[in-house]
Amino acid sequence: MDILDHWLNGAPFAGESTRTAPVYNPARGVVQREVRLATTGDVDSAVQAAKAAFPEWAGASWNKRQGVLFTFRELLNARKEEVAAILTNEHGKVTSDALGEVARGLEVVEFATGIPHLAKGEYSENVSTGVDVYSINQPLGVVGIISPFNFPAMVPLWFFPIAIAAGNTVVLKPSEKDPSAAIWMAKLLKEAGLPDGVFNVVHGDKESVDALLEHPDVASISFVGSTPIAKYIYETASKNGKRVQALGGAKNHMLVLPDADLDLVADSAVNAGFGSAGERCMAISVIVAVEPVADELIAKIKSRIEGLTVGDGTRGCDMGPLITKEHRDKVAGFIDVALADGADVVVDGRGIEVDGESDGFWLGPTLIDKVATTSDVYQHEIFGPVLSVVRVETYDDGLELINSSQYGNGTAIFTNDGGAARRFQREVQVGMVGINVPIPVPVGYYSFGGWKDSLFGDTKAYGPDAIRFFTRQKAITSRWLDPSHGGINLGFPQNG
Ligand code: NAD
């Protein structure tokens, strides 16, 4: 069987490991290739390659780095169907959704091409007589990126274009469940003229992650994944003296006020709940319906679900399979929990008819009403096509529910009342807020990140925060001496 190698110094690298993991086609339920799982030594080889490439890349002009990114942007845009096909093949998401993922990643590449402007320092003339102060932004060195399975192209693209543009060199550890997109992008970067060693990929599991977290030559870690691992990454990388941003899981609520347009709400709930089979950190997983709208809204959502097609992502279906059989079974298990906890399963996605092979990891869209907030269905991030409804009596009840969540990634309010929406944007304890927008992923020139257990660290992904994260600021105080500057004075320097 085909084994996917790491990528080091601009070429495939087998490394020393004998361990591999299976990479499935989730729509067919078959293993289509194996991926190597790096040892600590393999990770060290990648870090050494990145370290060796750093001085020259950090010393390259802004114009040179910007030029590589412009070319990469053109290549990625021209060949997006190629990488989208890889995403569908290994992740399962349908072709249109895979293309959407690439488009959102492209936004960050476009943002990064502005690096000469974005990374400019500041200058103050004459802070004291004849003394000037200015700041410069310098790259960190070797930066580590660890990404999840659900956006195999977009999440790496949140980080590496800006890291590279700022003069850093990169070691990416993508998800071992769908690792091929990372290698495809590495080849594209080489084609775009990126010098060898600036961008490296190691595949692996905990061993490779720990090797990155503990490596003395890795300056920073950018992580996206589930909350328990994000917390572990934040604590371990910080303990090892690294700059770290660790984005975690989510449970995103959609608050529906009685004055909302319920057809628009139902469309949005279905799109945001079941797109990518609910395997999005910005998926809507809980509808908080302010009564009396619940019955009418549920009927509208149910009728839309009945029109959805589930199947192989290459066949024009609305929704594809889940990533693995284990994950599919875990998500389906929440439907049993809902029944045991007395909720009302309005649509049960088990046993759905699919346009695909029977061994695929299928679960149809599922709608559960009257979910108790004490139930595991409400308490846990399910990360699948399961939409819960919680009924509340007032806006305040809904707000309190959202603000009590351990997560604070995304949320949305649906209303035609501008005053209520404005109040919500001020009062809600969540990092990304949609007003009549169900998946409020900020555009590339704003930063992406949640609050509470959805983000550990103080800088978000891409946008202005990424410029700060991937550079170190240096402040320089300078004067050009003339005889008037002489004399002895042991006091603390003061301006004058
Ligand atoms: P995950 O936490 O299982 O894995 C993420 C990465 O960590 C992978 O590269 C994996 O190999 C590695 N990893 C897994 N277990 C590890 C361990 N014990 N020690 C060290 N490294 C480990 O997440 P996933 O299942 O790949 O992705 C889904 C999760 O990611 C969901 O919780 C989702 O909400 C979250 N997510 C969050 C965002 C965000 O922006 N906040 C975006 C996308 C996904």
TrEMBL record:
<feature type="domain" description="Aldehyde dehydrogenase">
    <location>
        <begin position="16"/>
        <end position="476"/>
    </location>
</feature>
<dbReference type="InterPro" id="IPR010061">
    <property type="entry name" value="MeMal-semiAld_DH"/>
</dbReference>
<dbReference type="InterPro" id="IPR015590">
    <property type="entry name" value="Aldehyde_DH_dom"/>
</dbReference>
<keyword id="KW-0560">Oxidoreductase</keyword>
<dbReference type="GO" id="GO:0006574">
    <property type="term" value="P:L-valine catabolic process"/>
</dbReference>
<protein>
    <recommendedName>
        <fullName>methylmalonate-semialdehyde dehydrogenase (CoA acylating)</fullName>
        <ecNumber>1.2.1.27</ecNumber>
    </recommendedName>
</protein>
<dbReference type="InterPro" id="IPR016162">
    <property type="entry name" value="Ald_DH_N"/>
</dbReference>
<dbReference type="GO" id="GO:0004491">
    <property type="term" value="F:methylmalonate-semialdehyde dehydrogenase (acylating, NAD) activity"/>
</dbReference>
<dbReference type="GO" id="GO:0006210">
    <property type="term" value="P:thymine catabolic process"/>
</dbReference>
<dbReference type="InterPro" id="IPR016163">
    <property type="entry name" value="Ald_DH_C"/>
</dbReference>
<dbReference type="Pfam" id="PF00171">
    <property type="entry name" value="Aldedh"/>
</dbReference>
<keyword id="KW-0520">NAD</keyword>
<dbReference type="InterPro" id="IPR016160">
    <property type="entry name" value="Ald_DH_CS_CYS"/>
</dbReference>
<dbReference type="InterPro" id="IPR016161">
    <property type="entry name" value="Ald_DH/histidinol_DH"/>
</dbReference>
